[in-house]
Design brief:
heterotrimer, A mainly alpha (113), B mainly alpha (317), C mainly alpha (227), C: 227 residues, mainly alpha, Four Helix Bundle (Hemerythrin (Met), subunit A), transmembrane helix (chain A), NADH dehydrogenase [ubiquinone] 1 alpha subcomplex subunit 13 (chain A), electron transport (chain A), GRIM-19 (chain A), membrane (chain A)
Chain lengths: 113, 317, 227
């Protein structure tokens, strides 16, 4: 054991040890979470405002359209009636309505039976 | 007689167009999934069959169809045969009310959203019956598991859709799209979008809620006993449902798909890609955690959003 | 035959057959599946009278929620088929009466509808016209009433504004209250059971402190020592 010389070098940690591992939880995003929440909520608020402004406008337009249509409705109906009467059609006086059987007529009907 | 022939021909052609388009879409959705996942994991993905692997889905389908059909002896044969057909049929029927253009829609009905909700709730039967008819305890437990999952997440999804209906004031799909001309619903209803996305993942049995695909831990799910064509039908139905869900999310939150067709298709495909993104990223949920998330987190939050939406609408009026 | 009438007869026929199967089938799961078919037929009948909303709601509630729960429960019960077969035997006599009744109902339906159909034909192609003119009538657009077109709305709007939140709102509220009572009542009835179960769970709870403090000397004793 006298003449033994160490020919190899053991793979040891560097002097002063390895640098410390950063295993603690770190924030990946540079923006803090509260800011993100605030941003999302403000965008949502703006979006809601735009949507409802548009919706109110659209409803008003629809209402106006309806009112306008109701004004010219009799004219449209009359035009359609003229066209209909000019064509071969079903008898306009034909109806399945019957007068209610009350009073003398009903009594007469019952007597007939 | 002539009239009836015309009706039959017209309906047949229309439905043929929808079905063929859907099947091609499903085939390439599977390829897209494999390609996107490969890109995320720094792989190539399928690239052998055809140019850059474009014919891979056809080869897969052919392989599935040519395999031997095995019917268990103890199985209830009629229901065993009906279950995959039911799943596939319902996933096709759902597409009949989706408008792909201003005029190009198979059936424009007034209550389209309700129709989709109603028909997709029938889709649970395919899974329950497949599990029961296989007459194997693994398939049965898997079927019950998937059915409970789908039923419980339907509630949260329904509530979010209800809040959209309340904002839009209509249940016609085309009118909901018209309501988003000025601003998409994702902006005023961002939390609702997140909830709807999670619920859609659970509805279609996708990761991280893909308990039927957990072969090693849970012995797969309702489709253990199915092979060849039956399995292929389940597979097709599942992917058709995934495409439908991504298109529905695009319709409800991203401003619809009819005004600009290329942009609309891009919206749908981006939703599909985010489904795949979730699959490549997240680990699987445990079953009790899944139920907890559905009933105790998503449902109260969806109710909160709905209350907020109703109070907004009442305030404006 | 009118196409709607044909559809109606087919649907009613399916409903009758499914009702028979529900009564006859030994396996309760088949009964429930046939019940679902009946729900679907009912929704289709609602669609023929253009009530899309009601049909969708019917499927959503009955097929999507109630029947699924039935199926869940029935699947998980262990069923003794022989016993059911024995109990089914005593219903056989009623079945004959039922079949006669079904045939009668279908007969009444078809004959009545035929009479009404003749009336319709007379009304539509009135006696003032010759056959060639009545053939022309099918091409000419029917009379358009613009006033009805103007006031026309969807069925959901009509239902909401006129029925549920309008004239019949009191019944709607009553139904809600009954539902609430049903839900609260179940909790009240099972309250004792729940409390009992909670106590049981408390007793079963793991007491880590006592487990750790347990020692050989204090727990294991010689039999004679106890004596």
């Amino acid at each position: 054991m006298v003449g033994y010389r160490q020919k190899w070098v053991q793979d040891l940690p560097p002097a002063g040890g390895f640098p410390k591992l950063t295993y603690a939880r770190t924030s990946v995003s540079p923006i803090p979470g509260s800011y993100i929440f605030a941003g999302v909520f403000s965008v949502m608020a703006i979006g809601t405002y735009i949507f409802f402004e548009d919706k109110v406008k659209r409803n008003a337009r629809e209402e106006e359209e309806k009112r306008r249509l109701s004004m010219i409705l009799p004219i449209l109906q009359a035009e359609n009636d003229i066209n209909f009467l000019a064509s071969p059609h079903q008898n306009v006086y034909f109806t399945r309505w019957m007068p209610p059987q009350i009073g003398k007529r009903a009594v007469a009907l019952i007597r007939e039976i | 007689m002539k009239n009836i022939l015309q009706i039959v021909l017209e309906g047949g052609l229309k439905s043929l167009i929808v079905i063929i388009g859907l099947l091609i879409g499903v085939a390439f959705a599977t390829l897209l999934e494999r390609k996107v996942m490969a890109a995320m994991q720094k792989r190539r993905g399928p690239n052998v069959v055809g140019i850059v692997g474009l014919l891979q889905p056809l080869a897969d389908g052919l392989k599935l169809v040519l395999k031997e059909t095995i019917i268990p002896i103890v199985a209830d044969k009629i229901i065993y045969a009906i279950a995959p057909i039911l799943t596939f049929t319902i996933s096709i029927v759902l597409w009949s009310v989706m408008a792909v253009g201003v005029q190009s829609v198979f059936a424009s009905i007034n209550s389209g959203v309700l129709f989709i909700l109603a028909i997709s709730s029938i889709g649970v039967y395919g899974i329950i019956l497949a599990g029961w008819a296989s007459n194997s305890k693994y398939a049965f437990l898997g079927g019950l598991r998937s059915a409970a999952q789908m039923v419980s997440y339907e509630v949260a999804l329904g509530l979010i859709i209800l809040s959209i209906i309340t904002y839009a004031g209509t249940i016609n799909i085309q009118e909901i799209m018209e309501n988003q001309n000025k601003i998409w619903f994702i902006v005023p209803l961002f939390p609702g979008f997140l909830l709807a996305f999670i619920s859609a993942l659970a509805e279609t049995n996708r990761p991280p809620f893909d308990l039927p695909e957990a072969e090693a831990e849970l012995v797969s799910g309702y489709n253990v006993e199915y092979s060849s064509t039956g399995f292929a039908l389940f597979f097709l139905g599942e992917y058709a449902n995934i495409i439908l869900m991504s298109v529905l999310l695009a319709v409800f939150f991203l401003g619809g798909i009819v005004h600009n067709k290329i942009l609309g298709a891009m919206k749908g495909v981006s939703m599909l890609c985010s489904f795949i993104w979730v699959r490549a990223t997240l680990p699987r949920y445990r079953y009790d955690q899944l139920m907890y998330l559905g009933w105790k987190s998503l449902l109260p939050f969806a109710l909160l959003i709905y209350v907020g939406v109703i109070s907004m609408v009442l305030m404006i009026k | 035959m009118d196409s709607t009438l044909g559809l109606l007869v087919i649907l009613l026929g399916i409903i009758m057959i499914c009702t028979l199967v529900i009564l006859r089938s030994v396996n309760p799961i088949y009964s429930i599946l046939n019940l679902i078919v009946i729900y679907g037929c009912y929704a289709a009948i609602l669609l023929t009278v253009e009530m899309e909303f009601l049909a969708c709601i019917y499927i959503l509630v009955n097929v999507g929620a109630i029947a699924v729960l039935f199926l869940f429960i029935v699947m998980m019960i262990n069923i003794n088929i022989v016993e059911i077969q024995e109990t089914m035997r005593k219903y056989n006599i009623y079945m004959i009466v039922g079949i006669i009744g079904v045939i009668g109902i279908i007969g009444i339906l078809i004959t009545n509808y035929n009479i009404r159909l003749k009336e319709e034909v007379i009304a539509d192609f009135s006696m003032f016209l010759t056959t060639s003119e009545s053939n022309q009538l099918t091409v000419v657009p029917t009379y358009l009433d613009y006033y009805t077109l103007f006031t026309e709305t969807t069925d959901i709007r009509t239902m909401g504004s006129n029925v549920i939140y309008g004239s019949q709102s009191i019944w709607f509220i009553m139904a809600c209250i009954i539902l609430l009572i049903g839900m609260v009542g179940v909790i009240y009835i099972t309250e004792d059971l729940i409390i009992e179960k909670r106590h049981l769970n408390e007793r079963r709870r793991q007491d880590i402190n006592s487990q750790v403090l347990r020692e050989y000397k204090t727990t294991i004793r010689n039999y004679r020592e106890i004596q």
